[in-house]
Specification:
The complex is a heterotrimer of chains A (100), B (653) and C (523). Chain A has three helices and no strands. By secondary structure, chain A is mainly alpha-helical. Chain B has helices at residues 7-26, 28-54, 86-110, 116-135, 139-157, 164-195, 200-206, 216-232, 241-244, 250-259, 264-271, 273-277, 280-302, 307-327, 331-358, 376-390, 396-412, 414-439, 456-471, 485-494, 498-512, 520-523, 530-557, 561-566, 570-576, 581-626, 634-652, and strands spanning 63-73, 76-84. The chains are: A mainly alpha (100), B mainly alpha (653), C mainly alpha (523).
Chain lengths: 100, 653, 523
């Protein structure tokens, strides 16, 4: 049996990679994928805890996260496409319409 | 018969409504019939009511008719009720009688006007309001009439509303009257505060046992009421509106600004005689203001050239006499003069109206002269009235003015008498100046004019009024006991229960540890010194003749004299400019108020609203500080989130 | 339930209007007017069925609304709110007919008007603090839209200012409501926002009363508006469409004075008593200040708006006389102001429709071209001045009478407003209606048409009715007002001290003293 710590370390590393990706990448789709990495990092730790505590709440939650992620992908990609239609680019730095 | 009283004010008001709503459709003749019919009917009804009043059992001097409860709030209940007593009957007779005559005259005078109906709408309304004023049985109902007549006066002064001067005069009259009304209202509030009622009967019967003689409250009440009276009756300091009010058509000046409305103040003071009896100080104020006004206005009247303005200042001066009489407690004399003044002054105004009418609306006396042949009836009636106002025996003015002068000396003091006598001299002088400049001497008018006597409808009222001015004095023949009809008639109203006042007040003053006065004004017995009275009559007759002679020398014998003697003197200039009172009021009160208000308004936008908008601006400023952090870059926001998250982590551990 | 039905009928009407295609403007207008008129007639039915002899709430209806918080839907009406309620339905119908010629978005306009009607009516019947607050905020929205969409050139500024200013004021009231909620729970163990219950059980010391009073005061004083919270009013009036101004002056301002009567006085009687000098001073300043500023206005609507500040000062003064004369006068003056000023705004709107300007200097000699208009304008002007025999006088006199019992100087200061009112109104009237016209445009003016005559006629009837026979109105207030007076009477919290004592009692005391002393002396 693999110790809990390994899962958590993996999860942490994945999460950090995701965060860094969100922060430094400009391509909207890549940022998007980084968000997915973060979600899945959380999923890993949820499942690990689930197993560790011998309960099933964690699995329920990870399904929930997957659903949200799926929904997010569909909406998010739609947004990215419409962004691309408005401005033929998906470089996030080009989009600052939310400024005051 | 007394039950018909409620119809008396209602009929003219109905007439006014009919004239106002249907006047154009009905045509002038029908409007004239309705408009004159109302007042005449009111007059007849007044006679019937008078008859009914005479038939009342002995000892009953007041009859009240309550129509409905007007304002019922808790213990403050104001009735809409009419009070018939000797005083109000006298006033009703004068108002409806002289009013009817002037209405008839006005039909002739105004006939060519397009807005004939509008004029009579206001005119009838005025009469109704005036009747309410004199008939009301409480102060608030009097106030309805009080402001009602003021409002009609405003309409009628501004009758030629396309003339700026007329509009200004109307607004001025209303506003100046409002100043008086402000005081009147305060007086009424004081009265309610003291008596818990504003009905005449309650207040006046309770007054001797509620107010202490000479107390501050009594004085305040009287002074506030009197300030109200000065507004309506054009006394110092609120007289300035009356001369300007001459912008209205002449019948208006005759009815409203000479015979009836402006004497409402006298009526009010006479009505409240019980209250005034409790305040010797305010009696003195009334007497001196009246006397002062009598002289002051007369001096201005000497140097005016507009025929109606001379009469206007004369009115101010004569009302001053009435207040002088009230102030010395000679209420009968005041009412007597009020009646005779209504006769002769109405006649004078109407006479000047027919001159103006015949002279194509020229009002400058310097452009008249020698008109007596062109206006025979007007001339005679005018002369009769002038003799009456000058106080020549045996015309009405002689009796009434003489009575006032006699009481001024006997019940007042020599200063008051001096004021009255000076006023009498000046009156004789300026009135005959007017007569001489208008009817005598050489013609100075544009000869292309064809001065003509007006039609019968206008001359008949003149004759009636001149007759009244001639014989009106018979109402109050002095000296012979029992011949002073008016005195005996008004006695119940002006009777003051001195003993009760003295008893109650003495008790109070002793209780409060005050010094008890001698109650001189109350215990003072009206004196009947017959030789003195007769000699005073002689003196005043001499004064009047002196004034007439002076006028004769100045304006007939040596027409150049006024200019050589007085020309360019500062005194004359001052009088000609009416002591520059209007200018000073304008400079020191009106202009600063308007300018101050303008700055207030600017301040309102800058300071008061500035505070509100300033509060918004402060918030805006804070928002601006926070604004740069809202860069619009998604990754910036993500960075904030991460930093925040880390910060929380660090804080937790 | 009847009361609820009458209150929500306009809102139902607004929903119904949504189903009429917006091209049928005629149908929409007629339907809206029909609903408003039916509502007015129904509210008259309330007045008919009203029992004058009791101060208790009538047509009461209560049911649990948000049970978990103890919030009830509790409505009812008494002498204080009844006539305001009737006036609201009347003015709603009136202003729908006033805005018959509205061009833009007719359907939305009528819907907003009807929704506004329900909002305003709700304020006057709510007997639950929470419910009141909901209605209080709800009516802001349609008014905000009416000013913001159908208003004049600076409408956005005015609408936002109106909304924010009033909303900010009410926030503190919300805080106070929550505070009361917990205080009452502490005392009784019941979570409730029911006004009747709270009035009975709210018992806080004077210091707390003062704070709570101030919170309510801010909300209501802004609405009234009292000096110095009045600056939103001229802006809102000037920019609002005519009907908006009529409603604003006729009803919205009355909600402020109503709030004082319904909440400040019965909930915090002691604080109210303590604050008499404060309110009276502000009121007198407002009366004189409003009148002076009105005098120099160049815009007719602004003039009328500032005159409202002055008139409402009178109402506040009457309320805080805390006696029957003052309170009845204030209530009557509420109605009078709604009638007179509503009619004034309407008449200003009439010439604005024709000339598209409201600057006084543009007019002059209008009487020549609009004689009927001139008569109506004159009557309404005189009523606004407070000429005896017309409505304004009765109210003003009663207010002065009431305040005079409390403090003579305040009454005298307020009476100054009577003089100034004559100055600014008559001066305005002279410049607009009299003298020569200096502008050829004025010669094209046409006199009142049938619709306008129908609109002004009831106003004039009311002006004279209240002026000559105010008894039916005063009787309606009577029982509720005397009950309120007993609640706020200083005897309740200051034994031995008689406030606003009547002269006769003073005299009686003095007399007794004298009798004693004379008695001693005789021995």
């Amino acid at each position: 049996m693999v110790e809990l710590e390994y899962y958590l370390i993996l999860s942490g590393i994945l999460f950090s990679i995701g965060v860094l990706g969100v922060l430094v990448r400009r391509n909207a789709i890549v940022v998007f994928m980084c968000v997915e990495i973060m979600l899945n990092a959380v999923n890993i730790s949820l499942i690990a805890f689930d197993r560790y505590n011998n309960q099933h709440d964690g699995q329920v939650f990870s399904f929930m996260v997957m659903c949200v992620a799926a929904a997010e992908v569909s909406v998010g990609l739609a947004i990215v496409i419409s962004m691309y239609r408005n401005k033929p680019t998906i470089n996030l730095d080009e989009f600052n319409l939310m400024k005051w | 018969m007394l039950q018909l009283a409620w119809l008396i004010p209602l009929i003219p008001i109905l007439g006014s409504i009919v004239c106002g709503l249907y006047g154009l459709k009905l045509g002038k003749d029908k409007v004239a019939k309705i408009a004159c019919g109302g007042p005449i009917l009111s007059f007849l009804l007044t006679l019937i009511v008078l008859l009914g009043f005479l038939l009342l059992p002995e000892g009953v001097h007041v009859w009240e008719q309550v129509l409905f409860n007007w304002i019922p709030v808790a213990d403050f209940v104001v009735q809409w009720g009419y009070q018939i007593d000797p005083l109000s009957l006298v006033m009703m007779l004068v108002v409806s009688g002289v009013g009817s005559v002037i209405h008839v005259y006005a039909v002739g005078y105004m006939y060519e006007e397009y807005s004939f109906y509008r004029f009579f709408c206001y005119f009838n309304l005025f009469l109704g309001a005036m009747l309410i004023l004199v008939m009301g049985n409480n102060f608030l109902l009097m106030f309805i009439g009080w402001e009602g007549v003021g409002c009609c006066s405003y309409f009628l002064i501004g009758y030629y509303y396309d003339k700026k001067s007329a509009c200004d005069a109307g607004t001025k009259a209303f506003v100046v009257n409002r100043v008086g009304d402000f005081a009147f209202i305060l007086g009424v509030l004081f009265i309610f505060n003291q008596f818990g009622s504003i009905d005449y009967t309650t207040v006046f019967s309770a007054a001797p046992t509620t107010l202490v003689y000479g107390s501050e409250t009594a004085t305040l009440i009287c002074i506030f009421l009197f300030i109200g009276a000065t507004g309506k009756s054009a006394q110092i300091p609120l007289y300035t509106w009356l001369p300007d009010a001459m912008e209205g058509p002449t019948p208006v000046s005759a009815l409203i600004h000479a015979a009836t409305m402006v004497t409402a103040g006298v009526y009010m003071v006479a009505r409240c005689n019980v209250l005034f009896a409790l305040s010797p100080l305010s009696m003195n104020i009334v007497a001196f203001v009246g006397g002062g006004t009598a002289v002051f206005a007369a001096t201005i009247g000497m140097a005016q050239n507009d025929i109606k303005r001379v009469l206007a200042y004369s009115t101010v001066s004569q009302i001053g006499y009435m207040f002088l009489a009230c102030g010395v407690g000679a209420y009968t004399a005041a009412i007597f003069h009020l009646i005779t003044h209504a006769f002769f002054k109405a006649c004078l105004f109407l006479g000047s109206g027919s001159v103006i009418h015949g002279m194509h609306h020229e009002q400058d006396m310097r452009k008249y002269g020698g008109l007596k042949d062109h206006f025979p009836i007007t001339h005679i009636t005018f002369l009769v009235s002038t003799l009456a106002i000058a106080g020549i025996f045996p015309l009405s003015g002689f009796f009434s003015k003489d009575e006032i002068l006699f009481h001024a000396l006997m019940d007042g003091n020599i200063i008051l008498w001096g004021m009255g006598a000076t006023g009498a001299f000046l009156t004789a002088f300026y009135m005959f100046r007017l007569v001489f400049m208008t009817f005598y001497g050489e013609a100075k008018y544009d000869l292309s004019f064809h001065p003509h006597e007006p039609s019968k409808i206008m001359t008949t009222p003149l004759v009636i009024l001149a007759g009244l001015a001639f014989f009106g004095g018979l109402l109050g023949i002095p000296i012979i006991h029992g011949w002073h009809v008016l005195h005996d008639w008004l006695e119940p109203v002006f009777h003051v229960d001195s003993q009760t006042i003295i008893d109650y007040s003495t008790q109070h003053m002793i209780a409060a540890g005050h010094h008890v006065p001698t109650f001189e004004a109350l215990t003072h017995e009206p004196s009947h010194n017959v030789p003195l009275e007769i000699s005073l009559m002689g003196v005043s007759l001499l004064i009047a003749i002196g004034g007439i002679t002076a006028a004769y020398f100045f304006y007939i014998k040596f027409p150049k004299l006024p200019d050589t003697v007085m020309g360019g003197q500062w005194g004359l200039e001052l009088v000609k400019n009416k002591y520059e009172v209007d200018e000073h009021i304008d400079e020191y009160i009106v202009q600063p108020t308007v300018e101050g208000s303008f700055y207030l308004w600017k301040g309102d936008a800058k300071v008061v609203d500035g505070a509100v908008n300033g509060a918004a601006a402060v918030i805006n400023w804070f928002s601006k500080l926070a604004r740069p952090y809202q860069s619009g870059f998604v990754r910036n926001y993500a960075l904030f989130m991460v930093v925040g998250f880390l910060a929380i982590l660090i804080m937790v551990y | 339930m009847f009361l609820t039905f009458v209150t929500f009928l306009p809102l139902l009407g607004a929903f119904a209007l949504a189903f009429i295609p917006k091209e049928n403007e005629g149908t929409i207008k007629q339907a809206a007017l029909g609903v408003a008129l039916v509502d007015f007639v129904l509210s008259l039915g309330l007045w008919m069925g009203f029992d004058n002899s009791t101060h208790a709430m009538q047509f009461e209806f209560s049911t649990s609304w948000i049970g978990a918080w103890g919030v009830n839907y509790h409505v009812g009406i008494d002498g204080i709110s009844l006539l305001l309620y009737v006036m609201t339905t009347f003015l709603t119908a009136f202003s729908i007919l006033v805005s018959w010629n509205v061009k833009k978005h007719v359907k939305e306009y009528m819907m907003a008007m009807l929704a506004l009607g329900t909002g305003m009516l709700g304020v006057f019947i709510a007997l639950d603090l929470f419910l009141f607050y909901v209605f209080w905020e709800f009516q802001l929205v349609p008014m905000y839209i009416i000013i913001g969409v159908w208003g004049g050139p600076r409408r956005i500024y005015a609408a936002v200012k109106f909304f924010l200013y009033t909303a900010v004021g009410s926030l503190l009231m919300l805080v106070a409501i929550i505070w009361i909620y917990f205080v009452v729970e502490d005392a009784t163990g019941v979570f409730t926002t029911d006004l009747i219950f709270i009035t009975k059980h709210l018992d806080v010391d004077l210091g707390t009363q003062k704070w709570l009073w101030m919170a309510f005061f801010l909300a209501f004083a802004i609405k009234v508006p009292m000096f110095p919270f009045h600056t939103w009013l001229p802006d809102a009036h000037v920019e609002a469409p005519t009907a908006g101004s009529v409603i604003l002056a006729g009803v919205l301002l009355k909600m402020g004075t109503y709030g004082f009567l319904r909440f400040n006085l019965p909930l915090f009687p002691h604080a109210s008593y303590e604050f008499i000098p404060f309110i009276a001073t502000l009121s007198v300043i407002g009366i004189v200040y409003g009148a002076l500023v009105a005098m120099v206005q160049e815009d007719l609507k602004k003039l009328v708006a500032y005159s409202s500040v002055s008139h409402l000062g009178f109402v506040m003064l009457g309320i805080f006389a805390l006696n029957e004369y003052g309170l009845q006068g204030a209530l009557l003056q509420n109605l009078n102001h709604g009638i007179s000023t509503g009619a004034l705004f309407f008449l200003v709107g009439v010439i604005y429709d024709r000339r598209h300007t409201r600057l006084i200097k543009e007019f002059g000699g209008v009487t020549n071209y609009m004689p009927k208009f001139a008569i109506c304008f004159m009557i309404v002007t005189l009523s606004s001045i407070g000429l005896p025999g017309m409505n304004g006088f009765i109210g003003e006199f009663l207010i002065l009478l009431g305040m005079f019992q409390v403090n003579k100087m305040y009454a005298a200061g307020a009476a100054l407003g009577v003089i100034l009112a004559a100055c600014y109104m008559l001066w305005m009237f002279q410049r607009v209606m009299f003298m020569q016209s200096n502008n050829p445009e004025n010669e094209k003016l046409t006199d009142l048409d049938l619709r306008e005559k129908i609109l002004i006629a009831p106003m004039i009837v009311l002006i004279f009715w209240i002026g000559l026979y105010p008894k039916p109105f005063l009787k309606t207030f009577d029982a509720s007002v005397s009950h309120l007076v007993t609640i706020v009477s200083p005897d309740n919290f200051r034994p031995g001290k008689i406030g606003g004592s009547h002269a006769s009692t003073k005299i009686d005391k003095a007399l007794k003293k004298i009798e004693k002393q004379t008695h001693k002396k005789s021995h």
